[in-house]
Automatic annotation (TrEMBL):
Record-linked SUPFAM superfamilies: BH2638-like
Family matches, as Gene3D superfamilies: BH2638-like
Protein name listed in UniProt: UPF0223 protein GW534_04700
Family: Belongs to the UPF0223 family.
InterPro entries for the chain: BH2638-like_sf, UPF0223
Species per Swiss-Prot/TrEMBL record: Pallidibacillus pasinlerensis
Lineage: Bacteria, Bacillati, Bacillota, Bacilli, Bacillales
Amino acid sequence: MNYSYPISIDWSTEEIVKVVQFFEAIEKVYHQGVKRNELMDKYRKFKDVVPSIGEEKRIFREFEDVSGFSSYKVVKMMKENSGDILIKL
């Protein structure tokens, strides 16, 4: 994996960590799966940093372009399910 995560220079170190942890969870969904509750927690923290839907879509696109992983598909699957199931693609 030789790519960088989409981050903003305007974010604090703590905010960058939240965004990176969310994208690491997205990668993990594709490799081994992540419990829905864990993923939901990381997504909520991501949304604290990126509350705008438009900005979220832009960042998701940037991440998919460099990594091949669709954050949109993962978040959609997470929202469509309930309970602490394993989310895996």
